[in-house]
Every structure is written in structure tokens, then in C-alpha cells.
Write the C-alpha cells for this entry.
Amino acid sequence: MAAQFHAPIPELYVSYDSAQKLKLEAAELVSWDLTPRQICDLELLMNGGFNPLKGFLGQEDYDSVVETMRLADGTLWPMPITLDISEDFAAKVETGQDIALRDQEGVILAILSISDKWVPNKAREAEKVFGADDLAHPAVNYLHNVAGPVYLGGVITGIQQPVHYDFRARRDTPNEMRAYFRKLGWKRIVAFQTRNPLHRAHQELTFRAAKEAQANLLIHPVVGMTKPGDVDHFTRVRCYEAVLDKYPAATTTMSLLNLAMRMAGPREAVWHGLIRANHGCTHFIVGRDHAGPGKNSNGKDFYGPYDAQDLFKEHQDEIGLEMVDFKHMVYVQEKAQYYPANEVPEGDTVLDISGTELRRRLREGLEIPEWFSFPEVVKELRRTSPPRSKQGFTVFFTGLSGSGKSTIANALMVKLMEMGGRPVTLLDGDVVRKHLSSELGFSKEHRDINIRRIGYVASEITKNGGIAICAPIAPYTATRRSVREMVESFGAFVEVHVATSLDECERRDRKGLYKLAREGKIKEFTGISDPYEAPTVAELVVDTEGTEVDYCAQQVLLKLESMGLIAA
């Protein structure tokens, strides 16, 4: 078994000489600029990480994978790997045609020979692959609001791998991994999948898993795309490097996997197993709620805690990997060491810090005990995640035209500037239109672009430790969500719904816009001829009817204080 594991697996790259020739020919082809997620998928297609796939799935394989977790020929494969494109681009290409696939710098990475072009049933894909057509799932939201509406399938001819400037020595293709295991004579290898920093409990459980399986250990963290809001991979890799020294030398190695996770729970676990088998591993640790995205729209977990383990066990012979149970490790105070949760001596005290509790302690600058994590890891996390009162954040006001957003935003800005400590920027709708969006009109599409621009600037301000205050109408839930995701990669996002009623806004009508909208002189006017989708999860709701502006701004300050964003 071990010998077959370490033999090379097929890649989709052509030889160096052919690649040079193909590059010249490909320059003449119609080309598609890949999204970050498509680049992750393409890299694993080309280097054999997604073996046996020979390219992006055609329609028949796609339908089969969605419905049965298998390719049309019956091979186990749980995740649809598709090239989603825009309608405009779809109109320019036909089946039977070759197109060049380029990275974001315009470098040609591969050629796709189009075999299929179709419009998928995305609701069905969401239902079958992710278990529910629920936008609270990051991948379902991606499917409906980010991915293009048309899919292309076809064989890939790989020209060159995507360039990574970071942690180059830590990135290995499946065949490089296999060669490494061959060279060291490793026959049994346990892979550990992670998208979070490693703390002592993880170190204990991986060490135990390797010992139980009498195997070596591959720590194989994902550095492609994980869940919005996760710790960035630069910080995580520095944390992993700090932990590597804690393992016995020569038993453990680490390699980075450029995978775009879908957070698809049970199907994702099977997928992760197939990818690790391609990398030459023999065992795989599957955790409780493996690759789960958290809560659905009703506040329940998307997947049961052991669903992923059950599905994996069912298919492990076909995957070619043995599953190792993820033991939930807890710290026993009296014994001063870690035990599996089900082996704790009776009457002893269990200490545990959840992920939520850890984030709270980082946010509030509280102590993180040594029994929980390694000082080196805590130091790295504190560098990236200082206490909240020292981080940047965004306050995003949304509400109808005339609701009083700008007025409260101005008052808040002045109060924050009075307090000092961080630069404050007000991104007011009119100012933004003048400097960033002067070419945009007021169609739905243009208003959307305008909000995304505001969100982008706010995320940059937040990233650099400043305070951004935004006050656009922002009528659409999906757009507000994508702005939230942009900002939350770097700091807190505080949505304030200025819930002044339409009647009141129309009564004020300071700019006379409602009158023009009622007369039909302004098309697509929010609240009159275009909907306003009121937020359901805003951090704060204020109403300006019969309330002083000062009082509203004060409510926002109190909210910021309660969230730890400004010192009380």
C-alpha cells in the first residue's frame, strides 16, 4: 500500500519546452482573468491535488457530483470544481474553443479547451452540496452573489503554476510531498487539516493521533481561502512555525495547501481526504464539525457534530485513507496536563477556553494562560490582533434618504475626534460621489458599485488602525454583507440602522428628492420606486423621530464602548 502511495501522480502540466511554445500561441487566444478562488482550484487541478480531475467539470460530471458525490464514471468526488464566468464573457466563447486562463497580473497559467457551457441550477447545487440554500453559509452566499452565472467545463493544459511570493519553502505539490516521504522512508503519514492557529490542545491531539497510528505527522494548513473573518494566513503560518519546535524532531513536517475551502462539512471532509491521499498521506484526522461554517439563518449549526466523521468512515476505503478520530482534548487542572474529554478522572477540574473566549481575551487585552497556548503563538496573535480599543473599525450607517444618517455621522465624528487616539474619516455619500464615483449615475448597478467602493476604502482605513464612518443609503442586504466581510477581515464592523419611517423622511424632504420621485422624475428612488431592504442583524437601531441628534450619536458611542472599541 505504502509503495503505491509514494509513486508520482499525474499532473496536467506540459514540459518546459512545450510551455514556452504554448505561451506564445496562448497570447493570441481569448482570455479569462481568474478570480482568487479559481486560481486556487486551477493550481490543485494542475499539480494533481485534485487528481483524477483533468480540468474543470463538464455538465454531465457536474450534475453527477452535485447529485451523487461521484463523477459520471462512478469515481468518488464530492465537490463541483467549475469555472464560473460572466454572461458577457459567455457570449464570446463557444464549445470546442480554447481560451487562455490568466492570473490577476495577466500571466497565462493554463489553456482551457471548452467542452461544455451551461447555466447551472445554483439553488439545487446549494441544497445538495451544502445541505441548504441558505445565504448564511459563506459558500452559498458566494455561489449566488459572487460567482458568475454561467459555467465552463473542459480539459486543462497547464503552462505554469501560480506565483506565490510568501513562504515559498513551505509550499509543496503532491509529487514534491511524495518525494519527500520517499526520501525520509516515511510509510505511514497522518495529515492534520487546519485553518486556525494551533494551541496546546491541537499539539496534544495531533501528537497522540500520530502515536496511535504509529505514523509520522504532516501539519497541512489551508492558506488559500478559508471562512471570511478567519485569522489571516500570514499570522497563522508564523504561529505554526512557532509550534513546530514543540514536536519531536524528524517525526513531523509542515506544508501549506493553497486550497479554497467551501466549508461544506461532511462533503468537505471527504474532499480533504482525497486531496491528502493525492499528497501521499495514509491517515487523516477528522474533527468534530469538520469544516463547518457555523450557524445557519435559524441559529442552528449547519451540520451535526459527527456528520463529517460518519460520511468519511463510510467512504474511507475508496478515499484510500484511514480516518483518525479527533479527540476533544481538555486540560485537567489537578494533573496539570491534557486528557481526552472522555478520560478525565472523576472529580477533577477541567479547564477549557473556547475560540470565542480566546478572541474575547485578545480583544480585551486579557491574559491567555500558558496551559492553553504557547507564549510564542500568543505573541504572534497579539501582534496581529491588538486589544479592540487599539484596532481600527468601521461604523456603517444605513437608512432612507433624509433619515438623518449624515447628521448623526457628523456628530459621531466630532465626538470621536474630541476623544482622540485614532484618525477618523467620514465617508459621506456626496463627498464619495465627488472624489471616487463622479462617473456613476443612480441606477441600481451604479449605486451598488458606489457602496462597494465606500466599503473598500473603509476596509483600508480599518486595516490601518483608523476609524471609518460611512453614511450611504445602502438599500441592499447582499451589498451590505459584502462590505461587512471586506471590513471584518481587518476589524470590527458596526452597522447602525437609522430606522426613520418613510413618512417622516418624506415630510422632511430637505433636498426635494421625494417630490421628484413621486412625480416620476427620478427613476429607481429608494423607498418609492425601489425597495429598501431593512437590516435584520444591525448592531444598533436608532430612530431620529422626536430624538435629538446628540442623543442618537451618544447611543452609538455607548454601543462602541460596550463592544470595547473605545475605552470607557
The two ends are 63 Å apart (CA to CA). The mean pLDDT is 91.
